[in-house]
Amino acid sequence: MARKERDIFDLMDEWIKEMEEEFERIEKEFMRSFRSGGEGVRQFGPYVYGFRITVGPDGVPKIEEFGNVKKVKGKPMISEEREPLADVIEKDKEIKVVVEVPGVNKDNIKVKITDNGRKLIITAKSEDRQYYKEIELPAEVDEKSAKASYKNGVLEVTLQKKNVTSADSGVEVKIE
């Protein structure tokens, strides 16, 4: 008996159904913890949770979560820090990272390159919100070439790729 080929739409329907079931389970557990004043659950908000699904050039779907609601040991935990949504765009000679960090002043955003130019760490704070994001870069970058700009709540960091290795110095990037 021949096996039926499944197309991307069948897979997407299946993933969406699984995510809906997981969200319902998380919501029930969250509300149970919230009502009982469970560990790690604040009695105030805002609670931010979202996800995005992308399909890479290899055809493999990737699910990325963002916000301040995390699942730890199967239970929802609320963090003071929000994980912002980020896009990493790789070109021939550069990598561009675009991160949504609304509601903060550019002077309160820190961008640091670590792990020999392989990781980007972003922290941002305002009176009512905090952001934290670690991004594994797809290629090693030249820390000194980094340029960053912040406009309308969107941080854009442009990094030049490099071919040679150097000692891990961890360089902070100035935001224009």
UniProtKB/TrEMBL annotation:
Entry-linked SUPFAM superfamilies: HSP20-like chaperones
Keyword Cell cycle belongs to the record: no
Organism per entry: Sulfolobus tengchongensis
PANTHER family, sorted: 26.5 KDA HEAT SHOCK PROTEIN, MITOCHONDRIAL, HEAT SHOCK PROTEIN 21, CHLOROPLASTIC
Keyword terms of this UniProt record: Stress response
Lineage start: Archaea, Thermoproteota, Thermoprotei, Sulfolobales, Sulfolobaceae
Domain of life per record: Archaea
This protein's name: Archaeal heat shock protein Hsp20
Pfam families: HSP20
Keyword Membrane recorded: no
Annotated family: Belongs to the small heat shock protein (HSP20) family.
